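Pasting as-is:
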Amino acid sequence: MIRYIRKTACLRALLALLLLCAMPAALADSDFQAVVSASSMKVYAEAAPHAYLGALPRGTVVTVKAYSGGAALISYGGRTGVAQVSDMSPVSEASSGQESAGTAESRTVVATRDTRVYKKASTSSSYTSVKAGASMQLLAVNGSCAKVSYNGKVGYAVYSHLGEPGSAAQEQAPAAQEQTGSVRTGNAPVVTSQSTRVYSGADSTGDYVTVDKGTSLTLLAIRGDCAMVERDGAIGYTSLSALKSASGSSAAPSNANPFSSDSNEYAIYAFLTGEMHYNRAAAMGVLANIKYESSYNPECNGDGGTSYGICQWHAGRKTNLISWCEENGLDYTTLDAQLRFFQHEITSRYSSVHSYLKQVENSADGAYDAGYYFCFNYEAPAARTSQSTKRATYAKETLYAK
């Protein structure tokens, strides 16, 4: 979605010069569709002072109204603007996967990251979670929205999450024998320690059955608090904390989720230990900081409205949050979107913090170190040293002790 952003007078002057040189009276004979072939395409207002409107992601289909030299007048979403010809290709020359919606031709693509296939062309509709490496048929693309066929059903995915076969390996749950705790085999007998639900989807989505306390299952794999289990040949997913070994001891490893399953803390901890593979100490260090920043509230506003979200992303980082979520078809006000942005930001812009958290010792002292380092180097609040000490102590004495 194009957003209005103020740019410098120098940039506007350069753009005006480009338009004067590149867009004389000779224009294209008729409208035609083009697809953004660059990673992103900057769009400027048609009229002086040619304000910067925003950027359209790769795969967006636009209508070219006119062009000359290196500049083109385009229309997208009922709005017009000017962009560089070199950032786009006519649909007739683009690959079939970049054609506009309604095209019958299709090709095989894979998910390049964990993503979702929505029932409707809206991120607010119901969805099926899809793992990185999953194969599907790309039917059409309209802007950042891809129409796909997955498991025999037609749905919609974020186009930038898809790629050519071989561009992403299938992400598999780690085997149970790789976890710590009493379960050390990939084929371990367990029983439910309480009445619980077993879902068809790994993230508690899809159909489910409720099983009684004491039901015998086979534990196949663990990821965070998610357990892959089997019963009478049927495979499903349930909470690891609801299981115990057949001998009576807990089946949960040392990073089992200690929070209430209906809380934001639970979802954040599950993401940190599952999606990001942090140990318990590292996860508690991050959670301690989120507690002090936002009390785990994704809609928290701070600093007079200049900071937002669970990590209170401030100023330019708040803008990055919103932009990244829009480009990836996510609602930036939701916890899920913010967790995925957090993963993107810390692994790209704060990779040293991410590396530190990945190797921190899984102990109470490790939780202290994680809380301190994360606060000092990622959050960087005012009174950095005293805040880092306070949050580190909370991580060690309150959260890790749960």
